[in-house]
Amino acid sequence: MNLKRKGLITQVERGKYILSNRDVDSFLIGTRLIEPSAIAYSSALNYYGLTEQISNIVHIQTSKRKQNKEILNVRYQFITISPHKFFGIRKEWVGRDFYFITDMEKTIVDCFDLPEYAGGFTEAVKGLFISHERLDKGKLWHHALKMENNTLIKRLGYLSEILELKGFEDFRANAAQVLLPKYTLLDPLSSAEGKHLKKWRLIVNHTESEIYAMARTAL
Question: In this predicted model, what pLDDT tens digit does every residue of 156-169 receive, in sequence order?
Fold first, then answer.
């Protein structure tokens, strides 16, 4: 292709190009590599100002399979999820173009579903703590329920209680009605040993002081 040989365009993958002299938003590039897809997890936390972590990895959620890629020194990691978990998406405009990104409530839910892509459990806790007054609690509840992951409901219920987050009373009341009896881990990335908390059917593998410290890193 003449434009490619002249250096006017850069190929990002077969049949897909960007202008070489244009600073293209990495979120635009990433979400064009596979459809349907949306910016999610740590990248969405960063977009909403819920983490201070800066990463050259863009996390993209999709219901399809896609190999990770590196383009112009940016790594794109594609997380394949079940189709029923692909929702809570909003459109973000960049000039005359746009990309899709998880809304704030879905971002929080996703990060407690798969905290390894949030940057770790601490970043998920921090994101919840920073965002809790801005969250639509009704939407958060419906998003959490739609995920069909009882453990993330337990995690959000317990953390909202221990951190005394405002406006979560209805969330906790609703959560109490759907809890499954099996004990599951608060932090799946940490030790499997911990206190068995009957109220939330959780194995709490962090002390309360550790959880407070995670939240305080946001202050």
Answer: 999 999 999 999 99
